[in-house]
UniProtKB/TrEMBL annotation:
Keyword entries, A-Z: Hydrolase
Organism: Companilactobacillus mindensis DSM 14500
InterPro entries for this protein: dGTPase-like (IPR050135), HD/PDEase_dom (IPR003607), HD_assoc_2 (IPR045509), HD_domain (IPR006674)
Organism superkingdom: Bacteria
Residue ranges annotated for the HD/PDEase domain, each copy included: 57-195
KW Cell membrane (keyword) present: no
Protein name: Hydrolase
Family annotation (PANTHER family): DEOXYNUCLEOSIDE TRIPHOSPHATE TRIPHOSPHOHYDROLASE, DEOXYNUCLEOSIDE TRIPHOSPHATE TRIPHOSPHOHYDROLASE SAMHD1
GO molecular function, one term: dGTPase activity
GO biological process, one term: dGTP catabolic process
Amino acid sequence: MSDNIEMLPREKVFRDPIHNYIHIQHKVILDLINTKEFQRLRRVKQLGTASFTFQGAEHSRFTHCMGVYEITRQICDNFQRNYPTKIPGDGLWDDNERLVALCAALLHDVGHGAYSHTFEHIFNTDHEMWTQNIITSPETEINHVLRQVADDFPERVAGVIAHTYPNPQVVQMISSQIDADRMDYLLRDAYFTGTKYGMFDLTRILRVMRPYQGGIAFDKDGMHAVEDYVLSRFQMYQQVYFHPVSRGMEVVLTKLLQRAKDLYEHNHMNDFEMPSLLIPFFENHVSIDDYLLLDDGVLNTYFILWQSYPDEILKDLAYRFLSRKPFKSSEYTNKTKHLLPQLAEMVENVGFDKNYYTATNTSYDLPYDVYNPNSNKSRTQIEIMQDDGSLIELSTISRLVNSLTGKILRDERFYFPKSMLIKQSDDLFNDDYAKFQEHIHNDQIV
């Protein structure tokens, strides 16, 4: 059965600060944008709590998904113009794959929850699984739109997200170590945070991308543009995504949701306005409808209400989150890790419940990794194509990338209330504050 591919009578464009115009040519893409599930992404921030540190970072998952679609569209155009398939199985680009690639690019983040990754950690949700559920469930508007292309089209699009789709070129466009998703979020996040670390030459990278039998490679002439991208990604993680203050707000958010969950489980919310939209998550029984009702604004509304809640911990954590009172932090190492229980006890001694007012938070990233068939989650390595068509893995010819390859970057921090660092006068717990402060020097636990 051939796909029903309907084109718009006239191309539609969306203005975008990163790509200038986002070009929509297929009716199915416009119909997907107009579904309620996709429009919900306007109400989920792309960078979660990072806007408490970088005040410009108010952009949404919606704008990012549109950008990933646009980069994928440009890749398809380049492949069709310069590397169209001549005979089946020649490893070049089959433009019949365009629509599934575009739909997967647009929808790749549709399953993100409110406050994204923080929410996932508390309620053990997986945004990629939810994305696949939303695409394949007959209950959703997205599924209804996709089925108008072909009955099995939703499963094909979900297969790209799940990395099970048979064409590796399509999968690598959306998910690899250099894909449309990463390229858009680096440029977009750099723009909105006001930083320059994430900038790289997108036009040049798209120009040197080429399909081959096993996926996507890059012309050797473009190797330096690819190096620049890897370095940009490394710097964005260090300077923006791992920022200790953003993580301090993330810890407050985590503890706030944890306290609400604990109160609910002990029947301590019955006399107060129930957070009805969160109950399915507290009870670990979540339908697609339940999941899609949550966004950042819903959580913020509950936090506003919880500022009047009789429980002092919930009330205080809600106030801290809404009023930007992040926990402070200090780095610890394997040598100082044994001090953390002691420090947590000191925090408890001055009147804070250590279960909600102390935390460890570890950020780690692998800037670039080579393929390891024995790894549980091996990454698609970046291949550089030589003049004769042979492939060389990037880190073997780039000393810059080689210096970052396989090196896990870790930043391990202990979080606690800011008041622990303030010199107290005439306080009953002066000794505890003083002892705590003796262990903090130059942002390190000693």
